Every structure is written in C-alpha cells, then in structure tokens.
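To whoever picks this up:

The parser on our side crashed when reading a file containing two proteins. I've narrowed it down to the boundary between the first structure block and the second sequence. Both blocks are reproduced below exactly, byte for byte. First block:
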Amino acid sequence: MRFVIGDIHGEISKLRLLIKYIFTLDKNPELIFIGDYLDKGEDPLAVLEFLTCLNKQHPCTFLYGNHEYIWMNLEPDDLKMKEYLAKYGGYSTLNSIRMNDFDSGKDKLLTDHAEFFNNLKPFWKDNSYVAVHSGISPENYSTDIEDIPPNQLLFNRYEFIKHEEFYMRRYRLIFGHTGFFTPFVSSTKLGIDTAACFLPGQPLTAFCIEKNGMINSEFCFKGLEDFNDNYCPNIIRTNPWRYDN
C-alpha cells in the first residue's frame, strides 16, 4: 500500500510511531513524504538519519518542503533567508547538527546528507492524485505539474485552500505546509499536516491511498467518509511547544 506522510519538522518520536503503525498494516509499504523534515521540532538530524535508513529498506519518495528549499538555496549574504530560518525553527536544526551558524549548518547538511538532499523531488503523482508540499496556486491549475517552477509548489496557503476544483480537472491534491488540528478533507484536496511539532498532543498523519483513509502516530485510522466535506479546522499559528521547554 502507498502512504503519503505529512510534515515531520524534526519530530522523530512521532515519526517512529507512525512508521511502526504503517508496518502493522503493510510490511512492505511505499512511502511518499510531503517535505519539511527540518527545523522546529525534536531532533531534525535523527529524522534525516532515520529516513535515510528507511529508504534502504523500502521504496520511498521524498519531496522537498519550503524549509529544505531555503536551506539548500541559502547564500552567505542572504539575510532574508537567514531571518526566515531564525524565525521559523532553524535553530533547532543547528542544535541538532551541533553547528553555530546557518552558513556552516548548510555546508554540514548538504555534505553529510548529500544523497538525501540530491534526491528530493518537487512532486509525486499517479492517475488520481498529485502530492506537493504546499498545494498549487489556482492560477497554475491548468499548467502541467512538470512545467510549474518548483519554488511555486512550496509556499501556497489560503488562496489554494479555498479553491475548490480538481487540478487539471482530474487530480485530487495532497498537500502539507499548513498545520491543522485534524486533516483537511474536501472533495478536491487532502491536507495531511496535523502540526506534529506545534503541540505535544498533535500527531503525525499519513494518508493511505489504498485504504482511502487517514492514519496517525496515535495508531488511529479514520476513513475519508468520516470527514465532513470542506471541513477546515483552525490552523495552528503558534510557536512549537518545545520552544517553551
């Protein structure tokens, strides 16, 4: 079976629990990760190491999120990107990899984990679904996914979420980036970022394509038929809970 997994943001303990649950459902799953492995949470380095090992044992596809994109494209004189990382959890990655500044942190990440970063992809698709990190801007809904610049798949939020239409008139979109208390489910899109890094009680969530339902790191399964169409929980916009500890 195929599982699309939401934003991890360093939450290695929740990731291990979710993968353990997935293995109870399928001993040889195909895993598609929606991006944002770094920053904010428990231990970003442990996440990279765990995913690298997992990829040697099971078929995995790793999309890049906006956080990976920023780390990968960081330049020494780019103060705006450094301010972004400082504001949105970059210090948790620096602490995890035991580096003191963003320039040396980038060098260490891209050197020690070159294979992981070099194999990140902008999207995944089959005949029914397209998975991208943050969704697709409505203005690009008639553009083939291969022709959309990758950086335009990383920072979408409210206009995309409000837009109810099948992408290319056929694909249901699976996205992360925006954290919800429970998965966002509508007839045309599925939001699977349940803000695992923001509150201790928020789980890490995956969508199982073959079972047509959501599972999470609390060993909970819920079929899509149990969600209300166009149900949008409150979006968590707060500091990760670990920042207060």
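<<boundary where parser fails>>
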Amino acid sequence: MEEQFINLTLENIEKEHICCAISDKKHQAGVDIKKKWLQARIKEGHIFRKLNQKGKVFIEYAPLETAWVPVEGDNYIYIYCLWVSGSFKNKGYGKKLLQYCIDEAKDQKKSGICVISSNKKKPFLSDKKFMEKNDFKVVDKIGEEYELLALSFDGSNPRFKSNAKKQTIDMKELVVYYGLQCPYIPNCVKEIKTYCDANKVKINFVKIDTLEKAKNVPCVFNNWAVFYNREFKTLHLLNEGYIKKLLEK
C-alpha cells in the first residue's frame, strides 16, 4: 500500500507531531513555540507536509515574499527544509515531497522554487547534490560556501538580499541570531547561555521574531547564524564543544 502524506492545518496542528523533534522531551518547549509560529504562517500559505508516520520525513516551504530568510524575488516559493532520516531514507520520499512542492508551485503559476544550500554539505541545509539532480541550479552566492539554488519556470531568478552579503557586524563578542521556526533552537539558546554565563563568555542573542527582521539580517540565515570577532562564522547550532572550538580560533 502506498504511504500517505498529510499537510498540517489549523484544524490538525495541535494533535500532529512536527517530525524533527518528535522523540526528544527536552525540545518540547520548542515544539510548542514552533506550532504557534506555524499557526500564523499557515494563514500566509506556508506548507508543512509530512509522511503520516512517526518519523522525520517532511518538507516545509512558503511563498518567498513571506519566507523568513534574506532572499528576494518575484513570485517564488522558498523551501526551508526537506528532511528524510533514518530507516526512511532511500525509499523515494524526498523525491515525492519535492515533487509535491513543484506541482503546487506550477498550479499556482509561480515563477519557480528556491532554497539555500552550500557548496559542501552542511547540517540544517538542503543537500545541493539532491537538488541539482532535480534540476535546481546555483543562481546566487555568499562567499565560497553558501549558495542559493533555484528551479526557474520562466527564466527569472531570486537572489540574496544585499544585506545578507555583508557577513560582518560591529559587535566583537559572540553574537547569535536566532528565529522561532526550528524546535531545537529554544533549548539550544538555553544551553549556550548557561555555558557562557558559567565561563564568563560575553554573548549577545538577537531574536528574529518578525518577517522584516528576517529579511534584513546581515548574513545568510535559515533560522540561525553565529558571529564572532565581527565576522559571520556558521549556521550550525552551537553546543559546548563547538563554542570552545570557535573561541579558540
């Protein structure tokens, strides 16, 4: 029997899991925050589609105009996340989820679909090789690492906003820009703050809680971004080991 997929709606969001933090109790607060964020976004055309199983198999996307990323373009869809993990890999689920997005974009007469990726595979970003196999092409870059990939239907292309290409800020201390979309983030912020307080490390958290703030961050951003010594360092969620490594450089 063919596996079934479902979309989160205002009617079912309270009873459905949101995949990525499905089994870890320490992220439950993040799940609740994510669901509240989603409830507002669903009204804007945001889609969260998942396999109807207890697993991490889902795609999440939105109209680019209301997507909380420093990317601009006319009439595009932006993919936040496409994730298939564990025993669900190599069964064609990723392709089916992406195809659903493509079909919907075409039905809505969109100009295309875009996604932030990287030259080398990085956690929390869609895999470039998979997207290229499905005809996505690099249309913009930030430095040598981060790339904007697009599947254009009409020849137009989206682009990173100019502010995203700055990659520098005035503050020298450790600075973390974070959003409300990823359920891992609230606990991550808590753990980082605890570590920094205990080790007298100065840190500044910048909460991205509006679309305007997300569109105007000074770096590549897909829910999370870290600066140190005024320079952008990573999109990777921090833990104790990563902070130590970062501060030692």
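After patching the parser it read the second block fine. The chain has a mean pLDDT of 92. The chain has two domains: 5-161, 164-248.
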